[in-house]
Amino acid sequence: MDYSNLRRQIIFMKKSFFDQGYLDEQFNQLEELQDESSPNFVEEVVALFLKDSPRLLINIEQAIEKYPQDFYRLDSLVHQLKGSASSIGAVRMKNECSVLKAHGNDKNLEGCRRSLQKMKREHATLKQKLESYFQLLRQVGPRNSAVNSRK
Amino acid sequence: MSTGPELHVLAVDDSLVDRAIISRLLRSSKYQVTTVDSGKRALEVLSLEREVHMIITDYCMPEMTGYELLKRVKETAELREIPVVIMSSENSPARIRRCLEEGAEEFLIKPVRPSDVSRLCSLLLPTVAMTMAMR
């Protein structure tokens, strides 16, 4: 197996996530926490996020679509989603949460709907990109996946 | 680190993702960690036999906020000496002031970084270790 080629691909892929604004420095911080005792830490945390966030998105939609709208609950849900997105370095999602929060505070229903649709797309894209990334990493194996961008 | 009993940190956060992260941050600094998802569960852990040497808690939690947990800890004779650190995504001076006035040792802005946690632990836990050694 050509590890050097795979490693190049991985580094390039990760760089593109940063260049296109999907991820920020927080993601690097998490990768730095990986070691022999926790070699797949980032993948595990991202998996937790991807498992937990759909529920939040559904609840956000319900808060918007029910009548009367529950803007209070919406704010709380978006706050939660923003927090977890921020914790894994998912900066586009974090920013869209700020937009959604602002629309909610203005009680701008159409704004909320548009923002939520955008959020769902961002979520799907992020999921697809990160899952490809981790799949590549798994091919290289934990020993060879020193993809710290500081190197 | 030391030959004595290991230092035990209680981490409180309602977010699954953040619990995983704070737990890893603390474990990589070689501390024993217990994570719970609410202030209520934190108080349950604190009432058990096993000693807790530091509490690190999120501010925004349903039912009991980190601030309310801080107050409960500081109001309880057996618990008030335990250093409490608050984490929050909101950089609100009023909130920070209130927590520090209530006795929090530190207020960290989320997302919490490894350097924040190691700085914190080296700040607070040697004092605890010293206190333990003096008993």
Automatic annotation (TrEMBL), chain A:
Pfam families on file: Hpt (PF01627)
Domain HPt residues, every copy: 38-133
Cell compartment(s), UniProt: Cytoplasm, Cytosol; Nucleus
Phosphohistidine PTM positions: 79
A cellular component annotation (GO) from this entry: cytosol
CDD domains per record: HPT (cd00088)
Keyword presence, Protease: no
Keywords of the record: Coiled coil, Cytokinin signaling pathway, Phosphoprotein, Two-component regulatory system
GO biological process, one term: phosphorelay signal transduction system
Free-text note regarding domains: Histidine-containing phosphotransfer domain (HPt) contains an active histidine that mediates the phosphotransfer.
Task performed by this protein: Functions as a two-component phosphorelay mediators between cytokinin sensor histidine kinases and response regulators (B-type ARRs). Plays an important role in propagating cytokinin signal transduction.
Name by which UniProt lists this protein: Histidine-containing phosphotransfer protein
Organism: Brachypodium distachyon
Gene it is expressed from: LOC100833386
TrEMBL record, chain B:
Biological-process GO terms, alphabetical: cytokinin-activated signaling pathway; phosphorelay signal transduction system
UniProt keyword Cell membrane present: no
Positions carrying 4-aspartylphosphate: 58
Gene3D superfamilies membership: 3.40.50.2300
Signal peptide stretch: none
Pfam families linked to this entry: Response_reg (PF00072)
Transmembrane segments: none
All residue ranges annotated as the Response regulatory domain in the record: 8-125
Domain of life assignment: Eukaryota
InterPro entries, sorted: ARR-like (IPR045279), CheY-like_superfamily (IPR011006), Sig_transdc_resp-reg_receiver (IPR001789)
Keywords (A to Z) from UniProt: Cytokinin signaling pathway, Phosphoprotein, Transcription, Transcription regulation, Two-component regulatory system
Role this protein plays: Functions as a response regulator involved in His-to-Asp phosphorelay signal transduction system. Phosphorylation of the Asp residue in the receiver domain activates the ability of the protein to promote the transcription of target genes. Type-A response regulators seem to act as negative regulators of the cytokinin signaling.
Family, similarity comment: Belongs to the ARR family. Type-A subfamily.
Record's protein name: Response regulatory domain-containing protein
Classification lineage: Eukaryota, Viridiplantae, Streptophyta, Embryophyta, Tracheophyta
